[in-house]
Amino acid sequence: MSGRTLYDKLFDSHVVRTEDDGSSLLYIDRHLVHEVTSPQAFEGLKLAGRQPWRRQSMVAMPDHNTPTTSGFLNAAMIADPVSRTQVETLDANAREHALTYFRIGDMRRGIVHVVGPEQGATLPGMTVVCGDSHTSTHGAFAALAFGIGTSEVEHVMATQCLPQKKSKSMLVRCDGRLPSGVTAKDLVLAIIGKIGTAGGTGYAIEFGGEAVRSLSMEGRMTICNMAIEAGARAGMIAYDEITEAYVKGRAFAPKAEQWDAAIKYWRTLKSEDNATFDHTVVINANELIPYVTWGTSPEMVLPVDGRVPDPDREKDSTKREGISRALQYMGLTPNTLLAEIKIDKVFIGSCTNSRIEDLRAAANVVRGRRRAENVKLAMVVPGSGLVKEQAEREGLDKIFLAAGFEWREPGCSMCLAMNDDRLEPGERCASTSNRNFEGRQGAGGRTHLVSPAMAAAAGIAGHFVDVRKLA
Amino acid sequence: MDKFVVLTGLVAPLDRANVDTDAIIPKQFLKSIKRSGYGPNCFDEWRYLDVGQPGMDNSRRPLNTQFVLNESRYQGATILLARQNFGCGSSREHAPWALLQNGFRAIIAPSFGDIFYSNSLNNGLVVIRLDESKMDRLFADCAAFPGFQLTIDLEAQQVRAPDGSYAFAFEIAAGRRERIMNGWDDISLTLKHSDQIRAFEQRHFAAQPWLAN
Ligand code: SF4
Questions:
Q1: CA–CA separation, A12 and A5 (whole Å)
Q2: Which of A28, A211, B33, B75 fits as disulfide partner to A39, beta carbons 3.0 to 4.6 Å?
Q3: Which residue from A132, A355, A431 has its CB within 8 A of the most atoms of ligand 1, so it is best to mutate?
């Protein structure tokens, strides 16, 4: 008999009951909540006269609509009335149900997927859900973490459970080591380029192999964060000493004897050697160089030494039209060298790349250099108040400011432009976020996804450039 | 949730792959704390020539006549044909809300974003997977015959041509199907198992006491 995968272990240990059609009722340990996808769920709960099943499982904070300019002490100070109402609604719901809540003005507040792990609210072995597709991030902790819709948010609030069908399993094995200057972001972009944005649909992906094992937790979170961009609802990575070192001492992490008991269990959270997967993909990390997306889907990605594709060379007609449409939207000419594409803005932030390590990598590139003339705005948005504080302790803010980059307050910011940070029509941005969809960063805006070091390098050069060759 | 058993309706084609949830309903409309009012902003950036904002009078905005769903022959469509990976991207349930409120009751595509798929079924928007060759047939017929209709029979799990010339079978989880056909409330169904949930919780917290903190 073949051994069990990490996914098997996580899924099976949370099954409350199994239905006739093979689906399961899955118990949810941690429910993260933000302001955009929760109001209708809280309202539904109230209309049905229900109470949260286990309010201690919930950790809430506003992040999508929050301003990133300084001086905001509370929701009432948000200028846009619709954004303000949404944040105030979460304030009120959190108060009514006495939730653990990081409001505007609280140092611990930030992007929900940065804060959960930072607080130790995300722990190995847990099921973690949030009304947000990038909940896959938390899988980096050997947790089963996936995004849900608002009906499901309400369902989890009311029952602590979700009806779920087990997915198929995929192993993405990343052999070798990433060359220096090539990061977790480049690796995950390479993976998506290889399997496509629908490649992981119906699967839970485990990322493994030497290249993943040697990554920090920050890098692992970047990889799992973008599992959803490969079509997989959940991505995960086995537990090891790197996970353990990260979790230890965090606010919500177990202490004393509970810690000892926990690590004993957590150390079993990996796929057995003889486990079989429904599908395996192998990536050779040794060969990778930095990646840049050129189109309007994360799978439209190439190494930075490549050229914009030529639709005329694509035989498949649906793909050819897709390329043409993307190039038209992106304002790009076929066969242009990626390194010749000039940018207007830089965005360093988002739940993919706004952790301390990301900011350090970007700061290392801009240190002692200046933002290029043609770059109108380069903004750095830390993932949480605590990341911001840490970065300031290390003097990173000064490095950015000296280079002409802006240093902002934490939040989702221009990742999806629900607050005031956005691209104007036609503007081109080097962005460390996760989605380059049409209009994602502002109507008509053109997004190129890159690593923090690559975004910083583009901000200095004024166009894309292999960060390892930056003059 | 409205019940859905059999539907015969006008079909509209959206012949592009990877239609993401940002395209289905752009983020500025996600600021609403309501569950309704999203219909006119479904596919907003493709539907209109200007940039949509919440609170605009959509009936006065300039329509993009190039966008297929604006063509007069597709007005009143209840079934949408789409391509691979429809609804990829974010978890926003506003996407199925917008589609439903725009009049669609069913979407047929080769594949869907996973979260979009369950969000849709949770709202009674019937999402049906058919392989590419069958999709090609449907797209071709939809283009060839103005007023082209299809029948979706959830009970029989079939998509049928109006003249009975073909019937394509589709798969859907039995539990899901039953819930949609009866318009049942998912939460009430789960709460019937409250005792089992409590018993699980006790075992779970006994084994991993740190989870109970
Ligand atoms: S940073 Fe971007 S992707 Fe992450 S939760 Fe916020 S909006 Fe979503």
A1: 11
A2: B33
A3: A132
